[in-house]
């Protein structure tokens, strides 16, 4: 029996199935992409996907909340 499974050679989506768009920042709280980026993902090249994935970690700071429920200032 073979464990060879056909796979596509492409950059995987960062989607984690937590699809909630932050009302102020307008990015998904799960994957940190914008609605436009999510919609364009299937048409993006591997290079464009890789570049976007490199940007995502910096976006998480935009969603941090301080005590009292206020969003922390960034920048």
From TrEMBL:
It comes from the Bacteria. Pfam families: DUF1289. InterPro entries: DUF1289. PANTHER family: DUF1289 DOMAIN-CONTAINING PROTEIN (PTHR35175). This is Fe-S protein YdhL (DUF1289 family).
């Amino acid at each position: 029996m073979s464990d060879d499974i056909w796979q596509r050679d492409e950059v995987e989506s960062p989607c984690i199935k937590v699809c909630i768009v932050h009302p102020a920042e307008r990015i998904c709280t799960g994957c940190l992409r914008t609605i436009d980026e999510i919609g364009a993902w299937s048409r993006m090249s591997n290079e464009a996907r890789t570049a976007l994935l490199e940007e995502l970690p910096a976006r998480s700071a935009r969603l941090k909340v301080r005590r009292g429920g206020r969003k922390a200032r960034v920048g």
